[in-house]
């Protein structure tokens, strides 16, 4: 399998790349380094199964070669970053997601969107069941991230319903339990995952705590590959 990972030089994307390579797959990483760093990938220099394209996915991306799945992780994620980069955050959630869905559609391959519980805005109930649609503020400063992800989820579902693209949406919540975790390879986090159910649907009510070693299942299912261990 040859998997395209956007945001490959970021915190989550770089670990995703490692996992897929360790499982024997080939990976094409894409990143424009707006918040990521080559340091997260430099250990892969010379790895034949890994290739890298420096590119802003808010612009169209044309690939000559066949790929088997798109995992769209590109987006500023921390409040510090997206408050500093409001336009880029909105663009990557909207245009970036549109472009990557176009790639998935043209190659007839599965697409996975890394989303966030921020799509609920400032929720009034915890935990949020699937029937809860959120308590959002599109004109507040954090709206640039929340609304970008809401648009990203909406267009992902539209491509699924209208074009029949196989899609998955995974809201990821990362809780850093050690300081400096973003700069160390020793991933020391816990993630809340919402398990994707049937094609294109997400059941937020089955939120479970998982350790970082287990969460790759969802991206793997999206790309229809066996889970890296
Ligand atoms: N880390 C979290 O707590 C968390 C929580 C919920 C959702 N997410 C989602 O997971 C994904 C990854 O988060 P992360 O923590 O690894 O963030 P990160 O900032 O470490 O990584 C994001 C990567 O995307 C790249 N990028 C941003 N815009 C781009 C563009 N236009 N073109 C190409 N590359 C671009 C950045 O350079 C960076 O390498 C994001 O989509 C984020 O919204 C993260």
Structural class from helices and strands? alpha/beta
So how many helices? 5
Shape summary: globular
Q: Assign the CATH superfamily.
A: NAD(P)-binding Rossmann-like Domain
Q: Which quaternary structure do these chains form?
A: single chain
**How much β-strand is present in the residues?**
15-25%
Count structural domains: 1
Query: Helix content range of the residues, please?
Result: 25-40%
The CATH topology label is Rossmann fold
- Biggest pleated-sheet summary: 8 strands, mixed
Could you say which small molecules are bound to this protein?
Answer: nicotinamide-adenine-dinucleotide
Order of helices and strands: EHEEEHHEHEEEH
* CATH architecture name: 3-Layer(aba) Sandwich
The number of strands is: 8
- Rg on CA atoms, Å: 16 Å
In spatial order, strands of the major sheet run: 3-2-1-4-5-6-7-8
Mean pLDDT: 78
Low-confidence stretches: 174-216, 223-229
Tags for this model:
23% strand; disordered C terminus; Rossmann fold; 229 residues; alpha/beta; 5 helices; eight-stranded mixed beta sheet; binds nicotinamide-adenine-dinucleotide; globular
